[in-house]
Amino acid sequence: MRWQVTRSRGTLVALGAVVAVLLAATGVWVSRDGPTTPSVKVEEGFVEVAGGVSLETSLFLPERTPAPAVLLAHGFGGDKHSVDTDARELAEAGFIVQTYSARGFGRSTGRIGLNDPGAEVADARYLVDRLAARPDVVLDGPGDPRIAVSGASYGGSLSLLLAGTDRRIDALVPVITYNDLVQGLLPNAASERPSGGTTPASGAFAANGVFKSSWAGFLYSMGVDSVVPSEGTTEPASLQVGADLAAVCGRFTEAVCRAWTELATTGAMGEDTLRLLRTLSPASVTSSITAPTLLVQGEQDTLFGLDQADANARQITAAGGDVQVVWFAGGHDGAYPDEKLRARIVDWLEFRLMGTGANPFGAFEYDVQGGITPEGAPSTRTVRADSYPGLRGGATERRRLELAGGEQVVITPPGGLPAAISGMPALNGRLAQSPLASLFGMDLPGQQATFTSAPLDGQLLAAGSASIRLRVSAVGPPGEGVLFVKVFDRDPNGTRALPGNAVAPVRLPPLPADGSPVEVTVSLAGIVRPFDSGHELQVSVATTDQTYRTPTVPASYRVSLAGSVEVPVVAAVPIESSAPVAQLLGIAGVLGAALLLALVVGFRRRRVQDFDPALAGTPLVISDLSKSYTSGFKAVDGLSFRVERGQVLGLLGPNGAGKTTTLRMLMGLITPTGGTIRVFGRLVTPGAPVLARIGSFVESAGFLPHLSGLENLRAHWAATGRPAEQAHLEEALEIAGLGDAVHRPARTYSQGMRQRLAIAQAMLGLPDLLVLDEPANGLDPPQIHAMREVLRRYAATGRTVLVSSHLLAEVEQTASHVVVVHHGRVIASGAVDEIAAAGGAASFAVDRPEVAALALGAIPGVSDVVVDGDEVHANLNGVPCGDAVAALVGAGVSVGRAGPRRRLEDAFLQLVGEGS
């Protein structure tokens, strides 16, 4: 069902906060990078659940059954198709995977209740019932399937709520999700306790918090296309909303709509809203979760921070659950788990549900981001601790640092403007390495008090939520009593960086009118940050922040310190430790050093050989490329081909052939198991500089719907950090042919226009090699024709295009050359005409088509005889064309023309063994 907007943005802003609690992206945790495989079967359908609601579902079946099951929930704004790739990869690993579109999403009916226990959670329980009734699902007892549940953000909340209400869940993997919606939306970092908690990232979770208005508005704009139902849409009477809210509620339930209207318009919540959000929060059921739990949380996440996972870990452990915690260098503001982490999550599910292998995770792991590599990517190492401190006794080690800075006066300006900027929701991680980063981090004079440590005499690795005790008094009327506290990393040059763009909002207790101070402990937002030797920690206490609902009543405060800052430190060692080398040096001394030197020299020689001058003019050479997965599946097996300048090369193959995996390796998104990829002679590795010469559209393109097409392209290019004059924006737009539509908001675009905008985005900088994966998906014939012209115009500029597609007729009309891949290997390559002529089909222009068809069908070996007007087509299967003509003449048929039927489809089907 398509949703459209029929009211102005101003009248719809009431639902902004709804989306603020949810994952706007539609992905989920485990996008293992293998392709689909023919061994995985899919059953599509609809399931009727309580209240007359119909859920669209997909069931992914592995090659061998019976097997354990995984219930896979999608993110907010997505549907069951959002997790297709994830489900197929789990099925390839041997699981039966149930996906579905939750109420109000995709083609499912019903209204969105934000994982209401009586609706969405009950729906999930019913799907578990259905799995238990299947003979191909492994059972632990009557009606009790062996099953895990997982999802990210909205889906992660569902996994926790289901595990807390259904004892049949055997394992769960909630990713970047929340514990308490109240604190997720209105956090308050103020606490009466004298210092931080016992666990590394325990938050204050105090009442009467500060509203995350920027997240609400940002994510609302991303979900605006799903707000108001199209005309003619009907719902059961029990789901209809009152007339006063019907215009803005879209598919949300009345209870949710009223709650979020209150939040978005007042910035506060009444008792009814408070009760509702607590009912919808996993915190309401975590005391009942005892199944093994892998909590995966992002370190770059200003929506649901590390404190949310910390609370889940504490509560599930207290209930008797076996909890493992992973913090990774991503989140709502950054990236999803990388290939290595995703593969380990699948291994964890195999360990828990199948009893195979060893547990791939320790009790606690976290990522540490260091400097920037020569290729411009942040270097990251994963470290493992013996335990998650504070879960089962003991407490987190905290290092105390004294800060300098006496009492300071700060003001809240009238109207709360201008406001400090601490980042941009959902883009913080991407902007961190961009020249634009400085534009999204700014405190304002007169609005901040700063307290600074002495330069560190060694590196300090902060892992969790630091705490600091402040003394605050009002100067005149106390205003709303809101402050924003953050800790900066200040280098010797005075440049500040805000780790994770993390801010701790504080709602102060009532301040005495006589100016007497109150003391409050602030639990700063959780971070992982190596503060290097010579750097300083600087704590900023500000009166405004653009990310939150900033007070508008003018006020003035005196702020001073009532204690030192306490920084959590969790001792850990790298998972891939260099200890064996160190031991070798200790034992063998000079011999070990010589070995290390040889390794370094060998590495440098390999680096020199990363460039092959003989291929400097060749856009792409793939040699003996392979990719295997832990399940044993080999997605790519010795693939070799090359693409020359000026070619439009079509990469063809059935599902599971290895096309998308090959393209992802080409883009440096995943690492090959073997073989090489060279672009203009340079070896491709993740983050390799030569990737700047490639423009790609491999994943689904995402655009900010409230920005115009032109503004989206400019923002994308700015995030690359390259000079604006190198974008060649006008040339890319001219080739894409969007016309005046580039000035319209992206949310108004048709699917075809969005695809063309995505191609224009890939063309920015006029890359020498343009790589496109299924660019015509979802387009109608006129749009496909336009897309074909776009690619032809681009190739006409003297550059090279590589297109992966299943639309054979379009490839035949667009590409000059093709490579046909099957089971991860090249089975044919060459010019389109050459490949098409090898299809074995022939066409005959005749005067009596029906008689001719009978005559051809009587020839031994001839098949697929088709009458097409005055022509008859047939697959000769090796029968000489002259013999066929003789048979036709002998049957009294006049033959006007005879020759090969040059159709790429015929050749393709014959090559992959799927023709009749």
Automatic annotation (TrEMBL):
Keyword Transmembrane: yes
Record has Transmembrane helix as a keyword: yes
Transmembrane segments: 584-603
A GO molecular function held by the record: ATP binding
Keywords carried by this UniProt record: ATP-binding, Hydrolase, Membrane, Nucleotide-binding, Transmembrane, Transmembrane helix, Transport
Domain ABC transporter positions: 620-848
Pfam families in the record: ABC_tran, Peptidase_S15, PepX_C
Top-level division of the source organism's lineage: Bacteria
Signal peptide: none
Database matches in PANTHER family: ABC TRANSPORTER, ATP-BINDING PROTEIN
The family this protein is said to belong to: Belongs to the ABC transporter superfamily.
Protein name stated in the entry: Alpha/beta fold hydrolase
Organism annotation: Saccharothrix syringae (Nocardiopsis syringae)
